[in-house]
């Protein structure tokens, strides 16, 4: 499923392609969107390329810092001995890592060894399952992604002679120093600057070139408003490939940054008082010939709202599905405690169930004629932060949108008025959950739309991982608390 099937190498072609290589790098994507992988010998790789290999299930039994979940979940736990699951190589994901001597690289997806079916929490598989429903109806999906991120100069590691400290050095620095002391790569608020990138030219162009060679091409690359903030728009493409390339883009930025003493941060809100990092995604449906199916073909003289005059009936139902389901899937859209620091009123981030034609204050921006070409007709989901998992986000968009199509749902709220404050609450739609606790409770509710489109197994697992984050947060003592109360109470 997905357009990469025509690029899959046969075993004979694979042996020819890797003739001069001695090793291969493999990686899968966990629920937090983090690449988890290993280096293997070419001999080992060729022996498992067809049927897969054992991969420790604890990848789905611990958090982003390798702490096992407080409440053990179904996939990996003491009862099953943290057994192996099966990692199957996606030969269509083949590329070479240009900054590591062009070593071959492949992505994997994770399967249950007993049933040979994808495990419920595998992000790549979840997306492909959602897209398969479109394919069965004769449709495909296209997507694009835009990521903002802060960049910092990694502080010098006093215990090392390295001129380019690693990101782990930055983490160690923050254990004993305040966040405010971490130096931004550039200073001031200067979006779309042509001069700021020159100060770090090797890194700036290095990221672009590495992305091109690593097949996660950038379409646009510029500074954003904020100290050391950059934004990249990735080239749009078939939705499953887009999700992979979005995850690999973060990998590139972090890898190239480590070579230049630069630490990127895709946190949704790294610093108080500054704009957060968005992770906007775009989506459209196409037929087998690639024709855009959200475009109506001609102007509707009597649309339900003028903002929809060029949107097809299919597109209207898809949009309705997104709007109906958005409040129930927020842990996927905004997966961390920090995500909700970005989603506050009047700070260039949407906080309501809202939509509108070319409306950047809405949760869903409709892009269509007369301001865009028919083939570019699409929906931009603007709630997502840069900290979200692209595979899960795109799976959610497809699943909710297709639910709207199947049920022929009607759009529940009028478009957001053009006079509304950016990111402000509005009578046009309900306020989205304000924190991870509320959003997780809604996500895991017995009758949630999330359970309807994804099933209980995934919801229970992913919801359990978010409950783990909440418990860690509840037990944390923050700098703010110490500064406020240490002497006064």
From TrEMBL:
A molecular function (GO) term: glutamine synthetase activity
Superkingdom of origin: Eukaryota
This protein's record includes keyword Ligase: yes
One biological process term in Gene Ontology: biogenic amine metabolic process
Domain (GS catalytic): residue spans on this chain: 123-489
Keyword ATP-binding among UniProt keywords: yes
Family in the record: Belongs to the glutamine synthetase family.
Record-given protein name: Glutamine synthetase
Originating species: Exophiala mesophila
Record lineage: Eukaryota, Fungi, Dikarya, Ascomycota, Pezizomycotina
């Amino acid at each position: 499923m997905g357009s990469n099937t025509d690029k899959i190498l046969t075993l004979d072609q694979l042996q020819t392609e890797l003739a001069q290589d001695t090793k291969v790098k493999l990686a899968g994507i966990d629920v937090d969107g983090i690449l988890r992988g290993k280096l293997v010998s070419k001999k080992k790789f060729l022996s498992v390329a067809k049927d897969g290999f054992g991969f420790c299930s604890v990848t789905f039994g611990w958090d982003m810092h390798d702490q096992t979940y407080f409440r053990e979940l179904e996939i990996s736990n003491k009862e099953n001995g943290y057994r192996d699951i099966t990692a199957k190589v996606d030969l269509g994901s083949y590329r070479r890592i240009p900054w590591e001597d062009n070593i071959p690289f492949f992505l994997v997806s994770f399967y249950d060894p007993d049933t040979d079916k994808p495990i419920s929490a595998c992000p790549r598989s979840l997306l492909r399952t959602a897209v398969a429903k479109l394919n069965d109806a004769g449709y495909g999906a296209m997507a694009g992604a835009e990521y903002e991120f802060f960049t910092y100069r990694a502080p010098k590691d006093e215990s090392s002679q390295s001129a380019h400290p690693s990101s782990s050095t930055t983490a160690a620095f923050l254990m004993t120093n305040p966040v405010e002391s971490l130096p931004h790569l550039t200073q001031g608020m200067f979006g779309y600057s042509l001069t700021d990138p020159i100060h770090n030219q090797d890194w700036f162009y290095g990221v672009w070139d590495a992305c091109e060679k690593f097949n996660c091409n950038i379409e646009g690359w510029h500074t954003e408003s904020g100290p050391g903030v950059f934004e990249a728009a990735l080239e749009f493409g078939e939705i499953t490939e887009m999700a992979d390339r979005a995850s690999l883009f973060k990998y590139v930025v972090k890898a190239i940054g480590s070579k230049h003493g630069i630490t990127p941060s895709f946190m949704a809100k790294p610093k108080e008082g500054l704009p957060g990092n968005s992770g906007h995604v775009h989506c459209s449906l196409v037929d087998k010939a690639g024709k855009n199916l959200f475009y109506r073909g001609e102007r509707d003289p009597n649309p339900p709202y003028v903002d929809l005059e060029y949107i097809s009936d299919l597109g209207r139902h898809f949009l309705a599905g997104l709007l109906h389901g958005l409040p129930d899937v927020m842990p996927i859209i905004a997966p961390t405690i920090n995500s909700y620091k970005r989603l506050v009123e009047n700070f260039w981030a949407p906080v309501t169930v809202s939509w509108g034609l070319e409306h950047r204050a809405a949760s869903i921006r409709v892009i269509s004629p007369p301001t865009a070409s028919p083939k570019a007709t699409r929906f931009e989901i603007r709630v997502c932060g840069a900290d979200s998992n692209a595979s899960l986000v795109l799976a959610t968009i497809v699943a909710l949108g297709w639910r709207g199509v199947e049920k022929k749902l009607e759009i529940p709220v009028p478009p957001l008025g053009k006079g509304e404050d950016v990111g402000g609450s509005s009578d046009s739609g309900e306020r989205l959950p304000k924190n991870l606790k509320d959003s997780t409770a809604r996500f895991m509710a017995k009758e949630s739309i999330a359970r309807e489109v994804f099933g209980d197994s995934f919801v229970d697992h992913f919801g359990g991982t978010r409950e783990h984050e909440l418990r860690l947060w509840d037990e944390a003592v923050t700098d703010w608390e110490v500064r406020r109360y240490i002497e006064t109470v």
